[in-house]
Amino acid sequence: METGTAMAKLVIITGMSGAGKTIAVQSLEDLGFFCVDNLPPVLIPKFAELIEQSNGKIGKVALVIDLRGREFFTALSESLNYLKDHYTIGYEILFLDATDGVLVQRYKESRRRHPLAPEGLPLEGIQHERRLLEDLKGWATQVIDTSNLKPLQLKDRIMSRFTNADQSSISINVTSFGFKYGIPIDADLIYDVRFLPNPHYVEQLRPNTGQDPEVYDYVMKWPETQTFLTKLLDMLQFLIPQYRKEGKSQVVIGIGCTGGKHRSVAIAEYLGRMLGASDTETIRVSHRDAERDRH
């Protein structure tokens, strides 16, 4: 009986309306999770009791919890605290987000009304919902920005995370980006490398990205680059174990330069190699804007 209880896993799926909760549920169902949509937060302890009494027959559960007002947060907080005090079930909170512009476009395409603005414009409901969800986003163990993700990409992100049942593991996502295209909204840490010499002003380097050896070497050759990287690695090697200890399942590190093509790409590639991977850490490097201006 104890073995089944120890393996029990509870995932709470929440976030902005239109950000992909349906795809998240379908992905977890494919992984064998028992999924329940729109569960009132006050019923979470009862569900935990059901899991523990199942003797391991119900080991993986995903609950979708949508915004229903300010009392939602009080009920959810109380239920999660009760879970910690009375059950051995570990839980994670997966928060799905997207930019206002992307959410508005999705509502236009689907011709749906926003639940918080049934008679008004979708943007009004989105902005209201974002204010209400601000605290909950801070509780999340994993935040995924779906703005630039296709459904299959989102499914792959979720499945790659929850296929690994080891809750002590942490996924480190290093993403380069261009400030002129906006800051990644799911980033936990943002580092601005626009102070480094810019390969954009070297004609033969301009067409390539930071993944090109010549561009990479150009970014790396400066003393200020080496000093910055030494300090940055020292900070990350301190922070990542602290995040894992806190229970976070993912850390997103954003590295930004002006266009997200040269300096940020090279630094992200360097971090991906230097941070490495272990039994408790997986590293993923992506470049959001590196190919944006190529035709």
TrEMBL record:
Keyword Iron: no
UniProt-listed Gene3D superfamilies: P-loop containing nucleotide triphosphate hydrolases
Range of residues in the leader sequence: none
UniProt keyword terms in alphabetical order: ATP-binding, GTP-binding, Nucleotide-binding
Binding site residues for GTP: D66, L67, R68, G69
HAMAP family associated with the record: RapZ_like
One matching Pfam family: PapZ_C
Domain of life: Bacteria
RapZ C-terminal domain sequence ranges: 171-290
Residues annotated as domain RapZ-like N-terminal: 9-163
Chain sites annotated for binding ATP: G15, M16, S17, G18, A19, G20, K21, T22
Protein's name according to its UniProt entry: UPF0042 nucleotide-binding protein
Molecular function as annotated in GO: ATP binding; GTP binding
InterPro entries: P-loop_NTPase, RapZ-like, RapZ-like_N, RapZ_C
PANTHER family listed in its UniProt record: RNASE ADAPTER PROTEIN RAPZ
